[in-house]
Each structure stands twice: as C-alpha cells, then as structure tokens.
What does this fold into?
Amino acid sequence: MIPSLYVHVPFCLRKCNYCDFYSLPLSAAGDLFREYPRLLEKELTLWQSRIEPGSFSTVYFGGGTPSLLEPETIGHFLSLLKTEQAEITLEANPETLDAQRLSAFREAGVNRLSLGVQSFSPRFLEAMGRGHSPEQSRRAIRDARKAGFGNIGLDLIFGLPGQSLEDWAHELEEALALETEHISLYGLTISQDCPWGKAGLSPQNDDLQADMLELATEKLNRAGILQYEIANFARPGFASRHNRAYWRRENYLGLGPAAAGCIRNHRWNNVCDLPRWAAAVEKGELPLEGEELLSMDQVIAEAMFLGLRLLEGINCLDFAAQYGLDPRKRFKREISRMKKAGLLEEDENQLHLSRRGILLGDAVFAEFV
Ligand code: SF4
It folds into this structure.
C-alpha cells in the first residue's frame, strides 16, 4: 500500500533570495507551465500501469508555488485518484490567493492549506525577495476561513541575517494572533548557489537559532500549539498526516521534477530538471534519476533517525513488529551514549528525544547513520 502522494509544482512568480528548492520563475518556464497538468497526469498513469497505488490517505501539492495552478486543474487531478477521507494539502503563497480562488480550491477538494508566510516584517520580506506583504498573509488566512478551511498552517523562517531574538518573538506573536491550526518553523540555511549565498550572507549562528527554537517552543506550547516534531507545531488533532507518514517511514510516491519516492527499501528521485522530466514523461518513461535499493541495516537506521524527529519518538515494540528487532538491542551502545549525554530518554517502551535532545537532534541522528 502507498498511503501518500507528493506532487511537486516547480513554478514560482519569482525566485526568493534564499531559495534552494527546485523551482523556476514563470518567465523561464515557457509552455511547460501550460503543459504541466497534462504531463503530471501522464506520469501518474505511468505509475498506475506499474503498481496499484490503491487509496491515498494524504496528497500534498508542494513546490514551488502550487497555488499558481488553477483550482479546476487541482480538482481534475484529484478526480483521478482514490482519496476518500484523505488529507489534501496545498502549499500556497499569499499573493496568489483571493477569496474566490480560495473557495474554488476548497471546492476542488483541498482541505488543508499551508501558507508560505515566512515573516510578518516588511523589512525581512523585502530582503528575502518575497512577493507579498504581511497584510496579504493576514487577509489570505481570513479569506481561507471564510472559504471553509478548518485546517490552516503557516510557515515561518528564523535565523534570518540581522534577525534578533526580539524580532523573532514579535514574529511568533503575529503568527499566534492568526489562530492557525499548524505552524512550521524553518531554521535558515543558505546554499552557495542562491542570491544570498552568492552575496556572502550567512544565517544567524547555531546558538541564536537554538535560542529562537526554544523561545518558539515555549510560546507556541503555552498557546496550545504543541510541538510534535522538532520544527512542527499543531493544535491537538492537526499534526500533518502527510509529514508524519515520512517520519514514520511509510511508503510514498512523488510526481514532478525533483520529487522523491520510497516503497519499502526502494528509493528514488525524479530528474531535477523540468525539460528533462517533461521529455521522459512524454516518451512514456518514468523520469527517474537516482534509484537505490537500501539494505535492511540502512532501512533500520533511517527508521530510527526519522522516527526520533517526532516528539513521541519510537515505540520499540511496534518497531520490533515491523523490522524484526528491538532497537534497544540493535543500538544498545548508541542509545546508552545518548542517554548518558542527556539527549535521549525512555519511558516504558517509548524511546524519544529529551528537551535538550530536541535542540541537538542532529547529534543524535548522526549516531544511527
Ligand atoms: S516561493 Fe518558495 S519555492 Fe518559490 S522561490 Fe520562494 S522559497 Fe523558493
């Protein structure tokens, strides 16, 4: 069974200055923007002729800026899938939305909106090269509520060049005032290839970023938006089912350039290039680039470090039932070292990060690679 489908939509109105995702500005996409829905449908058919995906419990349109697609296009694509009771998420940028489009996305079947707010400060939005104002973010959330969305998330970035802890506290207060069900936080990294990297800009240092995450955890938890993964917070019952499936290492299929897929120990990536992806799909070929058959050791290590990202951690009995071994025996030395360092804890059969481990997660995950 493949419970999750990711659909990458690699188009943006313009590129943000820090962006490292695979997406093209619309001006560079040419006819492929118009052709994209047809090609996605063809790629889906290629998979359906090879495997029986069954019913999806989550579908996630990510990007890029999926809200650049027409609501009818999303609706038509969803009509090709079995999605009864599914969580259907659309990533959206505020400047692409208005009340009418939001109602049409809701009618098309989207039931979860993930809004790329990133900041409420005009100064930082401008520096990032974002195309929206704080007021557009607020309006998009108000309009989404009126359109019937009962599950809205927003994304914020922390560690921006020049951002202080006080700036960040203000961002969190602005976000909380909007009363969304979900908030995702991204600690900024800057690759050498993006405009900020080329200009020699750096994110705020690790210590300040750790303080920012700690402050966010305190403020959001206090407001009832509870941390359920290192950088993700939700009101009870509103954790992202799609992302949870990744962290639980469940099977997923990815469509579109740069999308990834994983079925049991078979993992792959699609080519990270829109014209090459389109040419392969047009020829009736799956546009795969990197394919790996993981060993059982690799699968188990991956299940450990993904599962530990969730605050509830790993249930050792469930893990043993799924992988045929108790992680406490297989990783006895590593677990003991991490417990002594105060990074890992065990309650009953549940292995999970400690408060300190949440802030130093990478050090824990490295133990299992
Ligand atoms: S909107 Fe998102 S994907 Fe598009 S350029 Fe900006 S950060 Fe990248």
